TrEMBL record:
Name by which UniProt lists this protein: Molybdenum ABC transporter ATP-binding protein
PROSITE patterns: ABC_TRANSPORTER_1, ABC_TRANSPORTER_2
Keywords from the named record: ATP-binding, Cell membrane, Membrane, Nucleotide-binding, Translocase, Transport
Similarity remark: Belongs to the ABC transporter superfamily.
A Pfam family the protein falls into: ABC_tran
């Protein structure tokens, strides 16, 4: 079991961020965590990354139960995390190759001596993600799509068991988004690759490789299970409390608002 949450509640001051969340992620499954802004997605990710403990409930991630052991460093070295918060913390002087290599040490910036094996792994990852041509460019001079590819490369350097992608296509145009999604699909198809949790609030980003989905609404699990069974017009109309239509094409869903009789 990669992630197991049982009755997890999280309060901050008087605000209820997560409310009775149950979730199980098995090794080798690829999940979409879907919810609108403010649904609690970030709180759930922070919990999985051991940035805080639950107010109530049981949390076990990668076999480590929260409260039973000091786990922050043990856990984060086994999880690859790609998010805007990571991007903002990277030093401005590192090039793309150095950012990728820093993932081997789970550091924000490359301050350690690397080995020949680490250097070669970094080259291989850059090649795999199509980043090799801008390996020597300063990270902060790259386009947003290029930055996201490099961040994914950084996350893969530690050979993580769990890879969390927090809205990786934010700010990308259509072409850059689809190119990045192709790279993510390739990672998901690897026989011995990491289990992936893909976080989004855009239904059209869901890839065929992501067979499971958790719908999070106001800090609660609205539904979880098979993607094709839950990403339907009926289910999402109930989720949004608004009539919507879902169409599937080539394993990808497309969402639109249902037209009223007056339209």
């Amino acid at each position: 079991m990669m992630v197991e949450l049982e009755g997890v509640t999280r309060r901050r001051d008087d605000k209820l961020l997560l409310d009775g969340v149950d979730w199980q992620v098995q090794r080798g499954e690829h999940w979409v965590l879907y919810g609108l802004n403010g649904a609690g997605k970030t709180s759930l990710l922070d919990l999985i990354n051991a940035y805080f403990f639950p107010t109530q409930g049981k949390v076990t991630v990668l076999g480590l139960e929260f409260g039973k052991t000091y786990l922050a460093e043990k856990l984060r070295s086994r999880i690859g995390f790609v998010s805007a918060s990571v991007q903002q913390k990277l030093p401005t002087h590192d090039n793309a190759y150095e950012v990728v290599l820093s993932g081997a040490f789970a550091s924000l910036g490359l301050y350690q001596e690397t080995t020949e094996a680490i250097d070669q792994q970094g080259v291989d990852i850059l090649q795999e993600l199509g980043c090799l041509e801008y390996a020597n460019r300063h990270y902060h001079s790259l386009s947003q799509g290029e930055k996201q590819r490099v961040l994914i490369g950084r996350a893969l350097m530690a050979n993580p068991e769990l890879l969390i992608l927090d809205e990786p296509t934010a700010g990308l145009d259509f072409i850059a988004r689809e190119e990045l999604l192709e790279s993510i699909a390739a990672i998901a198809k690897k026989p011995n690759g990491p289990t992936i949790i893909y976080v989004t609030h855009h239904i059209e980003e869901i890839l065929p490789e992501f067979k499971k989905i958790l719908l999070l609404k106001a800090g609660r699990v609205f539904a979880s299970g098979d993607t094709q069974k839950l990403v339907t017009s009926e289910q999402l109309s109930a989720f949004f409390e608004l009539p919507v239509n879902v169409m599937w094409n080539d394993g990808r869903p497309l969402l639109s608002k249902a037209r009223s009789n007056n339209d």
